[in-house]
Design brief:
Residues 58-453 form the Amidohydrolase-related domain. The chain has 478 residues and is of the alpha/beta class. It is built from 13 helices and 23 strands. An eight-stranded parallel sheet has the order 10-13-14-15-16-17-18-19. A seven-stranded mixed sheet has the order 3-2-9-20-21-22-23. The protein has a four-stranded mixed sheet with strand order 5-4-1-8, with no helix packed on it. The longest helix is centred in the middle third of the chain and has 18 residues, at 222-239. Bound molecules: N-(aminocarbonyl)-beta-alanine and zinc ion (ZN) (3 copies).
C-alpha cells in the first residue's frame, strides 16, 4: 500500500491545533507525529512514497457535507449535478464525504426508493458517500420498514412539513414517524416550514400579479418557519425522538431550537452558507440585464433567503457560535437558469427550488474565520467533526487520528480563491450563486481515503473511487 507523509503543517481539530506530521498508509491515517520524526534514524520523508509539503498551511479532516441532492427529481426537472459531477466538484472544494438524500415518494416502497438511489450513485462518485432517507409517504408500510434502514447504514430520515402534494407529511404522520425514531434511534430530520399556509400565501401573491422570484421569499414567511420548528420540537418532545432541523434560516427558528436545547431536549439545527451570507433584498430581489427581475431565481430555495434588515444572517452566525446551530451543510440542489429555473418565468411557484454550493462550503465557512465570526477550530467542527458525530461516522471520519480514513485537506490560509462560473466552478450549473466571491484561502491538496484527488489545481480523482459508507446511529445525543 502507498504511504504518504503530510509534513510541516498545522493540524487543526475541533478542539485545538498543533504542528504535526500526518502519516498515511493505504486508506488510513496511521500516525500523527512530532514534526520531523524519524524512522530507524532516518528522516521519514525518505521512506514514504509521497511527501505533501504543508508548510504554512492547515491540515484538516476532509469536509463532510451532510445535505446534498444529486440528481433529485424536483420541480418538474432533475437537480443538474449527477453523483459524478457533484462529487467531483465537492472534492475540488475540500469535501471528501457527502450524505445525499435517497427518496421514497408517496406510494413507493421505502426499500425501492433506496435501491434506486444506490443505482444512481454506485460507481459514479469521486469521494465517499452515505444516504439519509426521505420518507415522502408515511404509511403503515413505510413505518414498518423504517427500522430496517439501520441495517442498511441509513440512520436518519427526512420528513417535510412543506411541499403539500410532493413530500409533505401532516402532523399525524409526523407523530407516527417520530415514534419510530424514538424507538430505533433513527434521527428525524425535518424540513420545518408550514407548507399549507405558504401555498395559500403564494397563490394569493401570484393572483395579485406578484410573480417575480422576490415573492418566493415573501410567501415563505419566517413566522411559518418558526411555527413549524416549534411544532416539530413539541412532537419530538412528546415522543422522545431526536430531532435535527435542516436548512434553518429564520432567527426565530434558532430561538425555538435554543429554548428546546436549554431544557435538555435532543434537538439540533443545521444552517447553510446561503443563510449566512445572502439575503432577500440583495439576491432574491436582484435584477440583471439578461434576466430582469427573474435574476433572483438563481437564489430560489426553501427555506428562503431572509431579510438582512431583520437580522437573520447575524442570528445564524451567532447560533453557530453558541452551538444552538451545530453544523453547516449546503443543501446542494443545483438547477441551471436555462431550461430549469426558467420553468418559473412569470410564476415564482414553478421555479425549481435549490442552490448549488457543494464546491464552496469549506471556503465560504473559512471566511467566517477570516472575519472573526468563528474560530479556526469551530470551522473544522462545523464542517467535518460534528457532521461525522451527528450522523454516525465519527472515528472513521471527521478527525485526524490513527485508524481514521485518510480524508485530509491541506488548506492554505494565504492562498486565494475567486469563485465564479468561469473560474473555480466545477458544478454542472450555468451560473454560480456565489459569482464574484473572493475568498482568502485556498484548498491546496485533497486526499480521499489515502488517494490524492486534488493537487494544487490538478484533479487526480476518478469516478468510482468513492464508496458507500454505512453509518451508525448518531453519536451526538445529550
Ligand atoms: O430549496 C431546496 N432546499 N431544495 C432542496 C429540497 C429541500 O427542501 O431540501
Ligand atoms: Zn428541505
Ligand atoms: Zn435539501
Ligand atoms: Zn484551486
Amino acid at each position: 500500500m502507498a504511504t504518504t507523509l503530510i509534513t510541516g503543517g498545522t493540524v487543526v481539530s475541533a478542539t485545538g491545533r498543533a504542528a504535526a506530521d500526518v502519516l498515511v498508509d493505504g486508506e488510513k491515517i496511521v500516525a500523527v507525529l512530532e514534526p520531523g520524526s524519524q524512522l530507524l534514524g532516518t528522516d521519514l520523508t525518505a521512506s514514504v512514497d509521497t511527501v505533501v509539503d504543508a508548510s504554512g498551511k492547515y491540515v484538516i479532516p476532509g469536509g463532510i457535507d451532510a445535505h446534498t441532492h444529486m440528481e433529485l427529481p424536483f420541480g418538474g426537472t432533475n437537480a443538474s449535478d449527477t453523483f459524478e459531477t457533484g462529487t467531483r466538484a465537492a472534492a475540488h472544494g475540500g469535501t471528501t464525504t457527502i450524505i445525499d438524500f435517497a427518496v421514497q415518494t408517496y406510494g413507493q416502497k421505502v426499500m425501492d426508493g433506496l435501491a434506486a438511489w444506490h443505482e444512481k450513485a454506485a460507481g459514479e462518485c469521486a469521494i465517499d458517500y452515505g444516504f439519509h432517507q426521505i420518507i415522502g409517504g408515511v404509511d403503515a408500510d413505510s413505518l414498518a420498514v423504517m427500522p430496517k434502514l439501520v441495517d442498511e447504514g441509513i440512520t436518519s430520515f427526512k420528513l417535510f412539513m412543506a411541499y403539500p402534494g410532493v413530500f409533505y407529511s401532516d402532523d399525524a404522520q409526523i407523530l407516527k414517524a417520530m415514534q419510530v425514531s424514538a424507538d430505533t434511534g433513527l434521527l428525524t430530520m425535518m424540513h420545518a416550514e408550514n407548507g399549507p399556509v405558504i401555498d395559500v400565501l403564494a397563490a394569493q401573491l401570484a393572483e395579485a400579479g406578484k410573480t417575480d422570484p422576490y415573492f418566493h421569499g415573501i410567501a415563505r414567511a419566517w413566522e411559518m418557519e418558526e411555527e413549524a420548528t416549534h411544532r416539530a420540537i413539541m412532537i419530538a418532545r412528546l415522543t422522545g425522538a431526536p430531532l435535527y432541523v435542516v436548512h434553518v434560516s429564520a432567527k426565530q427558528a434558532v430561538e425555538q431550537l435554543a429554548a428546546a436545547r436549554d431544557r435538555g431536549q435532543n434537538v439540533f439545527g443545521e444552517t447553510c452558507p446561503q443563510y449566512l451570507y445572502l439575503s432577500l433584498e440583495e439576491q432574491l430581489g436582484a435584477s440583471s440585464e439578461e434576466w430582469g427581475a427573474f435574476e433572483g431565481a438563481k437564489w430560489v430555495c426553501s427555506t428562503p433567503l431572509r431579510a438582512r434588515a431583520e437580522g437573520h444572517q447575524h442570528a445564524m452566525w451567532q447560533g453557530l457560535r453558541t452551538n444552538d446551530l451545530q453544523m453547516v451543510s449546503t443543501d446542494h440542489c443545483p438547477f441551471c437558469m436555462k431550461g430549469q429555473k426558467e420553468l418559473g418565468l412569470g410564476d415564482f411557484r414553478k421555479i425549481p427550488n435549490g442552490i448549488g454550493s457543494v464546491e464552496h462550503r469549506m471556503d465560504l465557512m473559512y471566511q467566517g474565520v477570516v472575519t472573526g465570526e468563528i474560530t479556526l477550530e469551530r470551522w473544522v467542527e462545523l464542517t467535518s467533526t460534528t457532521p461525522a458525530r451527528m450522523f454516525g461516522l465519527y472515528g472513521q471520519k471527521g478527525v485526524i487520528q490513527p485508524g481514521a480514513d485518510a480524508d485530509i485537506v491541506v488548506y492554505d490560509p494565504n492562498g486565494h480563491t475567486s469563485i465564479g462560473v468561469n473560474k473555480t466552478h466545477h458544478m454542472n450549473m450555468d451560473h454560480s450563486a456565489w459569482e464574484g466571491y473572493e475568498i482568502d484561502g485556498h484548498v491546496d491538496t485533497v486526499i480521499s481515503r489515502g488517494k490524492v484527488v486534488v493537487d494544487g489545481d490538478r484533479y487526480l480523482g476518478s469516478k468510482g473511487d468513492g464508496r458507500f459508507v454505512k453509518r451508525g446511529l448518531t453519536q451526538y445525543l445529550v
